[in-house]
Design brief:
By secondary structure, this protein is an alpha+beta fold. It has 25 helices and 17 strands.
Length: about 700
């Protein structure tokens, strides 16, 4: 059945618009200009014509003459049955070269009405128009598109896939969710693809959460397939207002011996909740991931809420006997965080002097004449420095160090300027300059150590031991200062450092021993300097911990291999009863003259030191030679000794959520942050592949 709406006058050449409803399923539009059409014009049914070209033409009959009107460009050709279709095919070739993709063809696709149809509404036509005028704009209302595929002659449009692509783009780049309601975005999408039904804010939030659920399942499978243990880090984020979030991140070394990390949860901390309640919430989140059997360590800050969380998790793991070496290396404190704490103490002790130096630099830079006068003072005192005065950014403590370091080179010029410029009154005194010089030397060490951490391409646990030991030795030396301010500051810093050293010295030393360039030698070098006469006993403690960890991994590897061998028997009770036998067999075999992996490793010569050494690659190559020790190395080296991202090493405060993210609900924020992390990790993992492969990873909606 055909219903034809005709607009025009029979006595004039007018632009004619036909709306044809075919079998109540779709509308076709035909625009015919420069052709006399009268009321006798009839649209001929093309469905009975066998040639495929009629899919792109409408056949119009006027009297005894048939005209073929191209659906793409509206060109009129002969539509007579005696003319054949070759000329129509030739036209389509030329027409398609001029038009890459005709939207109107997609709008009149073969899809059923429930898949999306366009209905003309609110059409108006002015009878006063001349023959050169065009009809007013026609508005189209698009019916609800269902999930699925819309087919067109020149291509396919997948509506559901496009919705997920939009959501993934928003997640990946951190765009605001409300962008889907921005008028500019709506206009852009309508022009780009009229078939795409614009998504509401609630709709894109739902899409993002659906993607989060799918990606979470993939991460669960990845964690389950890891060959080693998982170390967890806990980081605090601050939202606008009083809100805080805990970011739980899993760290591991995968089967290709590459460091991996995934954000598992982003937990909102209600300021009215007790620390015990928060700890229970965190424990519940971890249980959702089912990784308690694989947890090896937790890295956190020195604060009460983190202590409560570690205590809760340790208690759960101890009850289920999941901890190795009695949990001696389970709790790890962030190395960068302890540096930040000591830097804060330094800056606080020098606060008034820093303010004077900062204001002095501002004063000198306030006018050209003052700056020129200062340069004259520099020449008079003979200050030999090519550096320019630098004003710091208080949010980055390394910039404050740079400001102090440069200012100290011009200290005499500052003093001379005060003698000649009575308006300059904020110059530090000689004692303040002296104290600034000493504390700046402290900051220099902290900057150097933090730079090593930030500059490491592969931040494995072994790189931290020598740097932390250097800080320890310097603190011991600084505490001997005769300056009361310096000695009190040094004692204050050392007290906090000792708490860190007490919790982390063992794991730092074990990680250094697993570096084939050092083995036990690095511990034997530093410990006498740190402990003096007690060094041999301290070295023995490290050695015993090393062997206890090795034995635990040896038993674990035996149990794992037996589990794989008997995995299909279903005799779980029998295997459980023989667990004690496995331990007995391991202990009795130690008394035999068979060298363990650990003994062979420690007895062999050190690997030569070089700049390009990759410790993970070394252990990957030597896994066949040290099967048990390599398992232990995988778990130890994967511990995050610092939980601070490399780009935040010199920040003075916690990580802060922006205003947009702070306004989101907790579950939406978690979905966005976690999924963004997983997608970006996927991009980094595919850097060696082509760009198209990387996009396929991020935009796979399945």
């Amino acid at each position: 059945m055909y219903i034809i709406y005709m607009i025009g006058h029979s006595h004039h050449k007018k632009l004619l618009t036909l709306f044809i409803l075919v079998d109540n399923t779709r509308y076709l539009d035909v625009h015919a200009d420069s052709m006399e059409l009268s009321e006798e014009t009839v649209l001929v049914d093309c469905s009975r014509l066998k040639s495929a070209v009629w899919k792109d033409f409408d056949r119009v009959k006027r009297g005894d003459t048939c005209v073929a009107v191209c659906k793409h460009c509206k060109k009129k050709l002969s539509g007579s049955s005696t003319s054949g279709t070759s000329h129509l095919r030739n036209h389509l070739i030329r027409c398609r070269r001029r038009n890459n993709h005709d939207v109107s063809q997609l709008l009149t696709s073969k899809g059923k009405k429930k898949e999306g149809s366009l209905t003309p509404v609110n059409y108006t036509y002015s009878h006063d128009h001349t023959k050169t005028d065009t009809p007013n704009l026609i508005r189209y209302e698009q019916s609800q598109l269902k999930d699925g595929l819309v087919n067109g002659t020149t291509g396919n449009f997948e509506y559901k896939r496009s919705r997920f692509d939009l959501a993934r783009m928003i997640i990946l780049h951190g765009y605001p969710l409300a962008m889907v309601e921005h008028i500019g975005f709506k206009v852009f999408v309508r022009k780009l693809q009229p078939l795409f039904e614009l998504v509401t804010l609630d709709g894109v939030v739902a899409d993002c959460k659906e993607i989060y659920v799918k990606e979470k399942q993939k991460v669960c499978e990845m964690l389950d397939e890891l060959p080693g243990k998982i170390s967890l880090s806990v980081d605090t984020w601050t939202a606008k207002g009083d809100g805080k979030y805990l970011c739980l991140t899993a760290h591991s070394v995968d089967d290709s011996w590459a460091l991996r990390k995934k954000i598992l949860s982003f937990v909102y901390v209600d300021p009215f909740q007790t620390e015990d309640v928060v700890s229970e919430i965190v424990m519940t989140r971890l249980m959702e991931w089912d990784i308690d059997r694989k947890l090896f360590s937790m890295t956190c800050d020195s604060c009460s809420i983190h202590d409560s969380i570690v205590c809760k998790v340790r208690e759960h793991l101890s009850e289920n006997r999941f901890l190795l070496c009695n949990g001696q290396i389970f709790e790890v404190r962030c190395a960068v965080n302890i540096i930040k704490i000591m830097v804060e103490d330094c800056l606080e002790a020098l606060d008034s002097t820093i303010c004077k130096i900062r204001e002095s630099i501002r004063y000198i830079k306030s006018s050209q004449s003052i700056h020129e006068k200062f340069n004259e003072m520099v020449q008079e005192v003979g200050a030999d420095s090519q550096k320019s005065l630098y004003l710091d950014n208080p949010a980055n403590w390394n910039s404050t160090y740079t400001m102090l370091d440069v200012a100290l080179e011009y200290r005499e010029a500052f003093s001379r300027l005060q003698e000649h410029d009575f308006a300059y009154t904020m110059c530090p005194s000689d004692d303040e300059w002296s104290q600034a010089s000493t504390i700046t030397s402290f900051l220099k060490l902290f900057v150097e150590v933090a730079t090593v951490f930030a500059g490491s391409k592969i931040p494995t646990a072994n790189i931290y031991f020598p740097e932390v030991c250097d800080i320890h030795l310097q603190l011991i030396d600084w505490c001997q200062s005769r300056d009361e301010l310096i000695s009190s500051l040094s004692l204050k810093m050392k007290s906090k450092f000792d708490d860190y050293w007490k919790k982390c010295s063992l794991v730092l030393a074990v990680a250094a021993i697993l570096d084939p360039r050092f083995k036990m030698k690095l511990v034997e070098y530093y410990y006498p300097q740190i402990y003096g006469g007690d060094a041999p006993d301290c070295v023995d403690i490290v050695s015993n911990c090393m062997r206890a960890l090795y034995n635990g991994h040896d038993v674990y590897s035996t149990l794992a291999s037996n589990s794989q061998v008997g995995g299909s028997d279903g005799g779980n009770d029998t295997r459980d009863r023989l667990t004690g036998f496995d331990r007995f067999l391991h202990e009795t075999s130690q008394n035999q003259n068979v060298k363990s992996d650990l003994d062979k490793y420690l007895e062999e010569p050190l690997f030569p030191r070089n700049v390009d050494f990759n410790i993970l690659n070394w252990w990957r190559v030597h896994t066949p030679r040290y099967p048990v020790l390599s398992m232990m190395a995988r778990n130890i080296l994967g511990i995050p000794m610092s939980k601070v991202s490399l780009d935040s090493v010199f920040d003075t405060g916690d990580r802060v959520l922006d205003q947009y993210r702070s306004s989101l609900s907790a579950d939406t924020l978690q979905a966005l942050i976690c999924t963004q992390d997983w997608m970006r990790n996927g991009l980094e993992d595919s850097k060696s592949s082509s760009s198209s492969s990387a996009l396929a990873i991020c935009y796979d909606a399945n």
